[in-house]
Amino acid sequence: IFRFCAIDDLQGPAIATTIYSAGVTHLISVYLANPWGRGLDEATTGKFESLGGEVLEHIEFPKEFDPAALAEETKSAVEEAVAEGVSKDKIGVFLVAYGEAVPIFFHAARYPILSEIKWFGTDGTVMLSEIADPAGYPTETQFALDTKFTATMYKIPKTRTFDYVKDRIFEKLGREPTIYAYGAYDSVWVVALALAAVNEYDAMKVKEVLPQVAASYFGATGNIVLNENGDLAVADYSLWRPVKTDGTVEWVEVGVYYYATDSVEWREGFKP
Q1: Phi-psi category of 53—alpha, beta or left, where left has phi over 0 and alpha has psi -120 to 50?
Q2: pLDDT in tens, 129-143
Q3: Which of 20, 94, 165, 170 has the smallest number of Cβ neighbours within 10 A?
Q4: Residue 238 DSSP label
Q5: Cβ distance 120 to 150 under 8 Å?
């Protein structure tokens, strides 16, 4: 299996470095009880600890869960850390969820202490419309603003082919494509070029040459360097946050995590 999208073995360390860069030294990890959630919890907290941070608690929740109880459990973990002398500006919550973030934010907003610390998310919550909608979801949106909720999204370079794909899909669908559309476009081209290279319809021969073909191809996602498992070997990440501007709230790119230097570059005015 070859995958041209960034994997969570890359996203986890990117999130951890982002959290630590934001001044957080004590972390509570709240994550969905499935392979995705557990994998990101492990990848993120492991890197966070290697940076010198301390993971206070791992809180797992199932798909069917009580958001009020989860918010209360998170609050108790924060209160315990504060009671032990940890400053609130050094405490963060890492949330691995999808739409579950909406009811979690609603109930977390009941506890002022949870609005006084920083919260972070993943590609599962980035661009979530409900937490940037002050008219429809005022409580959830205000909570995201108060906590400077920052989530990651795989960042690809804006190549000429990137613009071509974006424009063509916009013509057909009337909206911009998701980030995964660009990898899908490139995958078709790489397979076609690999077939041309072996000059026969033989899956095993295509498999053997595909990594080399991908490495020499430059498309909508830029250079494609695969690891021994057929996954992307490197990836940068955009950092997005709901921001209030001119009376409205919208998702804004507030920084970038760079894989090559394992560092975060915050946009002016957004460095924590």
Answers
A1: beta
A2: 999 999 999 999 999
A3: 170
A4: E
A5: yes
